[in-house]
Amino acid sequence: MQMKQFGLGDIVEMKKAHPCGTNAWKIIRMGADIRMKCTGCEHSVLLPRSRFEKRLKRILASANEPDAME
Ligand SMILES: [Zn+2]
User: Fold this and answer.
1) Which of 24, 38, 44, 54 is most buried, by CB atoms within 10 Å?
2) Average pLDDT of the chain, as a whole number
């Protein structure tokens, strides 16, 4: 299974869309818990990292240059 790279400021798509109909979330805090904000309605949620990784579908936009990661 491929390791998903995500970081602060990234826009991610989750397996389930937010009830507002948007499925694009911005990561606004990284740590043991991940805080992300719905880009549609600005609602923010806090998820334990393990749950976040399970729900993560793909990275839509990376805040960092991919080449700068390594
Ligand atoms: Zn929303």
Assistant:
1) 38
2) 90
Distance 13 CA to ligand 1 centre (A): 12
Total tally of structural domains belonging to the chain = 1
Tell me the C-alpha to C-alpha distance, in Å, between residue 50 and each of 19, 31, 34, 56.
22, 11, 9, 10
Domain membership flag for residue 18? yes
Residue 21's pLDDT band, with cuts at 50, 70 and 90, is very high
Q: How far is the CA of 31 from the centre of ligand 1 (A)?
A: 22
